[in-house]
Known about the structure:
- With 325 residues, the chain is of the alpha/beta class.
- 53% of the residues lie in helices and 7% in strands.
- Strand 6 and strand 7 form a beta hairpin.
- It is elongated.
- The model has no long low-confidence stretch (mean pLDDT 79).
Amino acid sequence: EKIRYLVPLPILSLAEINLHAATWPLLFIFSLPFIFSFNRLASIINNIQFKKIPLLIFLAISFAAGFITPYGYKSMAYLFMSNGAKNSRIISELAAPEFMDPRSIVILISAALIIMITVIRYYKKKPFCVRYFLLCGGTFIMYAIALRNIVYCTIGLCLYGAVLLSDVKIPDKNKIINPKTMFKIFYILSLVLLAVEIYAAGNLKLEKNNMEESCGQIVEYLNEHTDEKNLYTDFGSGGYFEFYGFKTAMDPRMELYTKKMNGKYDYFDEYAKVTRGFIYYDDYFSKYDARYIVTSNTILGNMFEHDNRYTKLIDTDNYDLWIRN
Protein backbone atom coordinates (compact mmCIF):
# COMPACT_ATOMS: atom_id res chain seq x y z
CA GLU A 1 0.00 0.00 0.00
CA LYS A 2 2.86 2.42 0.78
CA ILE A 3 4.11 2.22 -2.80
CA ARG A 4 1.75 5.12 -3.54
CA TYR A 5 4.15 7.39 -1.62
CA LEU A 6 6.70 6.86 -4.39
CA VAL A 7 4.40 8.18 -7.12
CA PRO A 8 5.30 11.89 -6.56
CA LEU A 9 9.03 11.21 -7.08
CA PRO A 10 9.04 11.51 -10.91
CA ILE A 11 6.80 14.58 -10.66
CA LEU A 12 9.17 16.12 -8.13
CA SER A 13 12.12 15.29 -10.37
CA LEU A 14 10.49 17.00 -13.35
CA ALA A 15 9.66 20.08 -11.28
CA GLU A 16 13.16 20.38 -9.78
CA ILE A 17 15.04 20.00 -13.06
CA ASN A 18 13.00 22.80 -14.65
CA LEU A 19 12.56 25.15 -11.69
CA HIS A 20 15.85 24.77 -9.82
CA ALA A 21 18.28 22.39 -11.53
CA ALA A 22 20.85 22.68 -8.73
CA THR A 23 18.51 20.86 -6.34
CA TRP A 24 17.71 18.01 -8.73
CA PRO A 25 20.63 15.71 -7.71
CA LEU A 26 19.56 16.02 -4.06
CA LEU A 27 16.56 13.84 -4.86
CA PHE A 28 18.94 10.97 -5.58
CA ILE A 29 21.47 11.88 -2.91
CA PHE A 30 18.73 11.61 -0.30
CA SER A 31 17.72 8.24 -1.73
CA LEU A 32 21.19 6.76 -1.13
CA PRO A 33 20.48 5.77 2.50
CA PHE A 34 17.47 3.77 1.32
CA ILE A 35 19.52 2.09 -1.40
CA PHE A 36 22.49 1.23 0.81
CA SER A 37 20.25 -0.19 3.49
CA PHE A 38 19.89 -3.15 1.11
CA ASN A 39 23.56 -4.01 1.70
CA ARG A 40 24.34 -7.26 3.48
CA LEU A 41 26.24 -5.31 6.12
CA ALA A 42 22.89 -3.92 7.21
CA SER A 43 21.76 -7.43 8.12
CA ILE A 44 24.29 -7.47 10.97
CA ILE A 45 21.89 -5.19 12.79
CA ASN A 46 18.24 -5.99 13.31
CA ASN A 47 17.28 -3.88 10.33
CA ILE A 48 13.70 -3.12 9.31
CA GLN A 49 13.56 -3.98 5.60
CA PHE A 50 11.16 -2.95 2.87
CA LYS A 51 10.48 -3.80 -0.76
CA LYS A 52 13.41 -2.86 -2.97
CA ILE A 53 12.17 -3.10 -6.53
CA PRO A 54 9.44 -0.38 -6.40
CA LEU A 55 11.91 2.20 -5.08
CA LEU A 56 14.47 1.43 -7.77
CA ILE A 57 11.81 1.57 -10.50
CA PHE A 58 10.51 4.96 -9.40
CA LEU A 59 14.07 6.32 -9.04
CA ALA A 60 14.81 5.16 -12.60
CA ILE A 61 11.67 6.92 -13.85
CA SER A 62 12.68 10.03 -11.86
CA PHE A 63 16.12 9.99 -13.44
CA ALA A 64 14.61 9.72 -16.91
CA ALA A 65 12.33 12.66 -16.10
CA GLY A 66 15.49 14.74 -15.62
CA PHE A 67 16.03 14.74 -19.38
CA ILE A 68 12.72 16.55 -19.94
CA THR A 69 14.26 20.03 -19.97
CA PRO A 70 15.42 22.42 -22.71
CA TYR A 71 19.03 22.03 -21.57
CA GLY A 72 19.18 18.24 -21.34
CA TYR A 73 22.08 16.67 -19.45
CA LYS A 74 23.60 20.09 -18.70
CA SER A 75 20.77 20.83 -16.27
CA MET A 76 21.26 17.44 -14.63
CA ALA A 77 24.96 18.17 -14.04
CA TYR A 78 24.44 21.82 -13.05
CA LEU A 79 25.16 21.27 -9.34
CA PHE A 80 28.49 19.62 -10.04
CA MET A 81 29.49 22.16 -12.69
CA SER A 82 28.72 25.08 -10.38
CA ASN A 83 31.37 24.26 -7.79
CA GLY A 84 34.34 25.67 -9.66
CA ALA A 85 35.07 28.78 -7.56
CA LYS A 86 38.22 28.51 -5.46
CA ASN A 87 37.10 31.31 -3.13
CA SER A 88 33.49 30.21 -2.63
CA ARG A 89 34.05 30.06 1.14
CA ILE A 90 33.79 33.85 1.35
CA ILE A 91 30.05 33.35 0.88
CA SER A 92 28.65 32.84 4.35
CA GLU A 93 26.23 30.04 3.44
CA LEU A 94 29.02 28.05 1.74
CA ALA A 95 31.46 28.43 4.62
CA ALA A 96 32.03 25.59 7.06
CA PRO A 97 30.10 26.00 10.34
CA GLU A 98 31.82 27.11 13.52
CA PHE A 99 31.16 24.38 16.03
CA MET A 100 31.08 26.80 18.97
CA ASP A 101 28.23 28.64 17.29
CA PRO A 102 24.89 28.23 19.16
CA ARG A 103 23.35 26.57 16.12
CA SER A 104 26.15 24.03 15.99
CA ILE A 105 25.85 23.37 19.71
CA VAL A 106 22.17 22.52 19.24
CA ILE A 107 23.06 20.18 16.37
CA LEU A 108 25.86 18.48 18.33
CA ILE A 109 23.73 17.97 21.44
CA SER A 110 20.91 16.54 19.31
CA ALA A 111 23.34 14.23 17.51
CA ALA A 112 24.81 13.04 20.82
CA LEU A 113 21.35 12.22 22.20
CA ILE A 114 20.43 10.32 19.05
CA ILE A 115 23.67 8.34 19.13
CA MET A 116 23.01 7.44 22.76
CA ILE A 117 19.48 6.24 21.97
CA THR A 118 20.81 4.27 18.98
CA VAL A 119 23.40 2.48 21.13
CA ILE A 120 20.78 1.64 23.77
CA ARG A 121 18.44 0.20 21.15
CA TYR A 122 21.27 -1.80 19.62
CA TYR A 123 22.17 -3.49 22.90
CA LYS A 124 18.51 -4.14 23.65
CA LYS A 125 18.24 -5.74 20.18
CA LYS A 126 15.34 -3.56 19.17
CA PRO A 127 14.51 -3.00 15.47
CA PHE A 128 16.97 -0.66 13.81
CA CYS A 129 16.32 1.35 10.66
CA VAL A 130 19.64 1.55 8.87
CA ARG A 131 18.27 3.83 6.15
CA TYR A 132 17.29 6.55 8.61
CA PHE A 133 20.58 6.18 10.45
CA LEU A 134 22.46 6.70 7.18
CA LEU A 135 20.20 9.64 6.26
CA CYS A 136 20.93 11.25 9.61
CA GLY A 137 24.67 10.68 9.30
CA GLY A 138 24.78 11.86 5.71
CA THR A 139 22.95 15.11 6.40
CA PHE A 140 25.24 15.73 9.39
CA ILE A 141 28.25 15.41 7.08
CA MET A 142 26.57 17.83 4.67
CA TYR A 143 26.24 20.35 7.50
CA ALA A 144 29.89 19.90 8.47
CA ILE A 145 30.82 20.84 4.89
CA ALA A 146 28.66 23.97 4.52
CA LEU A 147 26.54 26.08 6.85
CA ARG A 148 23.64 26.25 4.39
CA ASN A 149 23.00 22.53 4.92
CA ILE A 150 21.83 23.11 8.48
CA VAL A 151 18.23 22.66 7.35
CA TYR A 152 18.97 19.26 5.79
CA CYS A 153 20.85 18.22 8.91
CA THR A 154 17.92 19.21 11.10
CA ILE A 155 15.55 17.20 8.91
CA GLY A 156 17.83 14.16 9.13
CA LEU A 157 18.21 14.39 12.91
CA CYS A 158 14.51 14.97 13.54
CA LEU A 159 13.34 12.24 11.19
CA TYR A 160 15.71 9.64 12.61
CA GLY A 161 14.85 10.73 16.15
CA ALA A 162 11.15 10.35 15.38
CA VAL A 163 11.72 6.85 14.01
CA LEU A 164 13.78 5.86 17.05
CA LEU A 165 11.05 6.96 19.44
CA SER A 166 8.04 5.93 17.35
CA ASP A 167 7.56 2.67 19.27
CA VAL A 168 7.97 4.21 22.72
CA LYS A 169 4.84 4.03 24.86
CA ILE A 170 4.28 6.63 27.55
CA PRO A 171 2.02 5.49 30.41
CA ASP A 172 -0.87 7.73 31.32
CA LYS A 173 -3.52 7.46 34.00
CA ASN A 174 -6.17 6.43 31.54
CA LYS A 175 -4.39 5.18 28.42
CA ILE A 176 -1.14 4.41 26.65
CA ILE A 177 0.06 6.76 23.93
CA ASN A 178 0.45 4.58 20.85
CA PRO A 179 3.44 4.76 18.45
CA LYS A 180 1.60 6.82 15.83
CA THR A 181 0.74 9.48 18.40
CA MET A 182 4.32 9.50 19.65
CA PHE A 183 5.57 9.95 16.11
CA LYS A 184 3.22 12.90 15.59
CA ILE A 185 4.38 14.55 18.82
CA PHE A 186 8.02 14.22 17.82
CA TYR A 187 7.19 15.45 14.31
CA ILE A 188 5.63 18.63 15.70
CA LEU A 189 8.63 19.20 17.96
CA SER A 190 10.87 18.65 14.93
CA LEU A 191 9.07 21.36 13.00
CA VAL A 192 9.48 23.75 15.92
CA LEU A 193 13.20 22.99 16.11
CA LEU A 194 13.52 23.40 12.36
CA ALA A 195 11.82 26.79 12.45
CA VAL A 196 14.07 27.97 15.29
CA GLU A 197 17.22 26.91 13.46
CA ILE A 198 16.15 28.52 10.20
CA TYR A 199 15.58 31.75 12.08
CA ALA A 200 18.93 31.42 13.87
CA ALA A 201 20.65 30.85 10.54
CA GLY A 202 19.41 34.23 9.40
CA ASN A 203 17.12 32.95 6.66
CA LEU A 204 14.18 34.88 8.08
CA LYS A 205 15.94 38.20 8.48
CA LEU A 206 14.29 41.05 6.64
CA GLU A 207 17.23 41.62 4.30
CA LYS A 208 14.88 42.63 1.50
CA ASN A 209 13.81 45.73 3.42
CA ASN A 210 17.45 46.72 4.01
CA MET A 211 18.21 46.19 0.33
CA GLU A 212 15.29 48.32 -0.81
CA GLU A 213 16.14 51.10 1.63
CA SER A 214 19.85 51.31 0.81
CA CYS A 215 20.07 50.31 -2.85
CA GLY A 216 16.77 52.00 -3.62
CA GLN A 217 18.36 55.36 -2.85
CA ILE A 218 21.25 54.52 -5.18
CA VAL A 219 18.91 53.49 -8.00
CA GLU A 220 17.01 56.76 -7.67
CA TYR A 221 20.23 58.77 -7.72
CA LEU A 222 21.60 57.01 -10.80
CA ASN A 223 18.34 57.36 -12.71
CA GLU A 224 18.22 61.08 -11.96
CA HIS A 225 21.89 61.96 -12.61
CA THR A 226 23.21 59.64 -15.33
CA ASP A 227 22.25 57.34 -18.19
CA GLU A 228 25.08 54.96 -17.30
CA LYS A 229 23.81 51.40 -16.85
CA ASN A 230 27.11 49.63 -16.17
CA LEU A 231 27.84 49.16 -12.47
CA TYR A 232 30.37 47.43 -10.31
CA THR A 233 28.36 45.70 -7.61
CA ASP A 234 29.20 43.15 -4.97
CA PHE A 235 27.87 39.62 -4.66
CA GLY A 236 24.83 40.51 -2.56
CA SER A 237 23.44 43.56 -4.35
CA GLY A 238 23.97 42.68 -8.01
CA GLY A 239 20.63 40.99 -8.48
CA TYR A 240 18.74 43.99 -7.13
CA PHE A 241 20.29 46.37 -9.65
CA GLU A 242 19.82 43.91 -12.50
CA PHE A 243 16.11 43.92 -11.70
CA TYR A 244 16.08 47.68 -12.37
CA GLY A 245 17.84 47.34 -15.72
CA PHE A 246 21.49 47.85 -14.77
CA LYS A 247 24.35 45.69 -16.03
CA THR A 248 26.35 44.54 -13.03
CA ALA A 249 29.78 43.07 -12.53
CA MET A 250 28.57 40.44 -10.08
CA ASP A 251 25.37 38.93 -8.70
CA PRO A 252 24.40 36.05 -6.36
CA ARG A 253 24.66 33.46 -9.15
CA MET A 254 28.29 32.71 -8.28
CA GLU A 255 28.53 29.68 -10.57
CA LEU A 256 27.97 31.79 -13.70
CA TYR A 257 31.14 33.72 -12.93
CA THR A 258 33.44 30.68 -12.87
CA LYS A 259 35.48 29.54 -15.86
CA LYS A 260 34.12 26.02 -15.39
CA MET A 261 30.65 27.33 -16.17
CA ASN A 262 31.15 30.27 -18.55
CA GLY A 263 34.17 28.83 -20.37
CA LYS A 264 35.98 32.18 -20.35
CA TYR A 265 37.38 33.40 -17.04
CA ASP A 266 37.10 33.01 -13.25
CA TYR A 267 35.44 36.36 -12.60
CA PHE A 268 34.24 35.38 -9.15
CA ASP A 269 37.70 34.43 -7.88
CA GLU A 270 39.03 37.72 -9.24
CA TYR A 271 36.22 39.55 -7.44
CA ALA A 272 37.01 37.68 -4.21
CA LYS A 273 40.67 38.67 -4.39
CA VAL A 274 39.80 42.32 -4.95
CA THR A 275 37.39 42.48 -2.00
CA ARG A 276 40.01 40.90 0.29
CA GLY A 277 42.86 43.08 -0.90
CA PHE A 278 44.87 40.46 -2.84
CA ILE A 279 44.49 42.41 -6.10
CA TYR A 280 45.08 46.16 -6.27
CA TYR A 281 41.60 47.62 -6.54
CA ASP A 282 42.41 50.38 -9.04
CA ASP A 283 44.00 47.89 -11.44
CA TYR A 284 40.78 45.90 -11.30
CA PHE A 285 38.48 48.87 -11.91
CA SER A 286 40.75 50.18 -14.67
CA LYS A 287 40.68 46.79 -16.36
CA TYR A 288 36.89 46.87 -16.59
CA ASP A 289 36.62 50.65 -17.01
CA ALA A 290 34.30 50.80 -13.98
CA ARG A 291 32.97 54.30 -13.24
CA TYR A 292 30.13 53.76 -10.75
CA ILE A 293 30.82 51.40 -7.87
CA VAL A 294 28.29 50.06 -5.36
CA THR A 295 29.85 48.30 -2.39
CA SER A 296 29.31 47.39 1.23
CA ASN A 297 32.86 46.08 1.55
CA THR A 298 34.72 47.88 4.33
CA ILE A 299 38.15 47.06 2.85
CA LEU A 300 37.33 48.77 -0.44
CA GLY A 301 35.54 51.61 1.33
CA ASN A 302 38.52 52.32 3.57
CA MET A 303 40.87 52.40 0.58
CA PHE A 304 38.53 54.65 -1.38
CA GLU A 305 38.49 57.10 1.55
CA HIS A 306 42.22 57.68 1.09
CA ASP A 307 42.23 57.80 -2.70
CA ASN A 308 41.26 61.11 -4.33
CA ARG A 309 40.38 59.27 -7.54
CA TYR A 310 37.24 57.96 -5.81
CA THR A 311 34.36 60.10 -4.56
CA LYS A 312 31.45 58.93 -2.45
CA LEU A 313 28.10 59.99 -3.93
CA ILE A 314 25.64 58.14 -1.68
CA ASP A 315 26.23 57.02 1.90
CA THR A 316 23.73 54.55 3.42
CA ASP A 317 23.83 52.15 6.34
CA ASN A 318 24.43 49.12 4.10
CA TYR A 319 25.62 50.12 0.63
CA ASP A 320 27.54 53.11 -0.68
CA LEU A 321 27.80 54.54 -4.20
CA TRP A 322 31.23 55.71 -5.37
CA ILE A 323 32.36 57.28 -8.62
CA ARG A 324 35.80 56.69 -10.10
CA ASN A 325 37.08 59.95 -11.55
